[in-house]
From TrEMBL:
This is HTH hxlR-type domain-containing protein. Residues 31-123 form the HTH hxlR-type domain. It comes from Actinocatenispora rupis. Keywords: DNA-binding, Transcription, Transcription regulation. The keyword Disulfide bond does not apply. Signal peptide: none annotated. The lineage of its organism: Bacteria, Bacillati, Actinomycetota, Actinomycetes, Micromonosporales.
C-alpha cells in the first residue's frame, strides 16, 4: 500500500507527518530514529497505537477511548499514522494497526514493564 501525502520543504512535519530521510522537528539528519521520535512525540500518537492494540475501532470509539480528545487532533494523528503505514482504515471506516503498527506496540512492551517497576519504586518511597 503506497502512502501519499503532501510534504513541504524545510525542517518539520508536513501535513502527513514525519518520515525517515527527511528533516523533522529537532533534527535535520533524516535518521529513522529522529523521524520516529518526532512522530511518537506528538500529542496522542502513542495513545492511538495503544488503543488500537486489541483490534479495529471506529472513529468515535477511538475518540472515546482516548478520553474524548478533539476530533481535529484525532483526525490529524490518524492521517500521520496512516501516512507512516502504522494504521490503516478499512472500507467500513474502522481503523486498525498494520503489521508495522503492531510491531510498534510489541516494541513498547519492555517500556510497559519498566513503567510498572518505576511506579512500584515510587510507591515504595511514600
Amino acid at each position: 500500500m503506497a502512502a501519499t501525502g503532501t510534504w513541504t520543504k524545510g525542517v518539520g512535519a508536513v501535513q502527513d507527518g514525519p518520515r525517515p530521510g527527511r528533516p523533522v522537528r529537532g533534527s535535520e539528519t533524516g535518521r529513522p530514529l529522529m523521524a520516529a521520535l518526532d512522530l511518537f512525540g506528538r500529542r496522542w500518537a502513542l495513545r492511538v497505537v495503544w488503543e488500537l492494540r486489541d483490534g479495529d475501532l471506529g472513529f468515535r470509539q477511538l475518540q472515546a477511548r482516548c478520553d474524548d480528545m478533539s476530533s481535529s487532533v484525532l483526525r490529524q494523528r490518524l492521517r500521520e499514522l496512516t501516512a507512516a503505514r502504522l494504521v490503516r482504515q478499512h472500507d467500513d471506516g474502522r481503523y486498525a494497526l498494520t503489521e508495522l503498527g503492531a510491531d510498534v506496540y510489541r516494541s513498547l512492551r519492555p517500556l510497559i514493564s519498566w513503567s510498572r517497576r518505576w511506579a512500584a519504586e515510587l510507591t515504595d518511597d511514600t
